[in-house]
Structures are given as structure tokens and as C-alpha cells.
Amino acid sequence: QVQLVESGGGLVQAGGSLRLSCAASGSIFSINAMGWYRQAPGKQRELVAAITSGGSTNYADSVKGRFTISRDNAKNTVYLQMNSLKPEDTAVYYCNAGVQDYSRRVYAHWGQGTQVTVSS
Fold this sequence. Notes:
- The protein has strands at 2-7, 10-13, 18-26, 30-39, 46-51, 57-59, 67-72, 77-82, 91-100, 106-110, 114-119.
- The strands form two sheets. Strands 2, 4, 5, 6, 9, 10 and 11 form a seven-stranded mixed β-sheet that branches. Strands 1-3-8-7 form a four-stranded antiparallel β-sheet, with no helix packed on it.
- It is mostly beta strands and 120 residues long.
- A hairpin with a 6-residue loop joins strand 4 and strand 5 (46-51).
- 0% of the residues lie in helices and 59% in strands.
């Protein structure tokens, strides 16, 4: 079994910063891409940022220049540094990881979500 545990969400004023963390644990041989998604009330879940095992990144246009994704492969952890936050960034943020287990099968796993609320 694999678990993704997120932390770092909360309430912040517009213009502020938050740092999200997501640690993977369990039966892990390796982790491929990791990413952060978000879902606002009444909207579909959308990709915010993703990072490959080699460190290549991509971002949603709405967060480019404000958010930075990074990972620590030794700790099986992915981070999302969010700066210059806007009220429209308010959402539940979910961590996602493509995990290869010891049988070499790859499955996508999701965290439980962490609430980020940006007040105006």
C-alpha cells in the first residue's frame, strides 16, 4: 500500500505565501511524475504543477511565475511553494504521484487534499 500525506494548507491573505508538502510512504520502488492539482467549489479538478523524476517541470498558465514545484527524491516528497497568492487560488489542493511498486507495476495515487483559502 502507498499513502500520500499532504500538509501546509491554511488561510492566508492575498499576496501572501504558503508551502505545501506531500510525502509518499509504503511499498515504493520508485516514483515517476509527481504533481499538484486543485479543485475549487463547483469546478473541475485541474493540474497546477507537475515534476518528473528528473526534475522537469510544467505549470498551469495561471500560476506561472508565482508557484514553484520541487521534489526530494530521497524523501519521496514533493513541495509546492505558492507566492503572491490570489483569492482565485482558493481550492482544495491534491497531491498526485505515479508510484512503481516492487512488482514494477505503476499506479497513480492521490493524497487526501489540503484546503488553501486566500482572503481578499
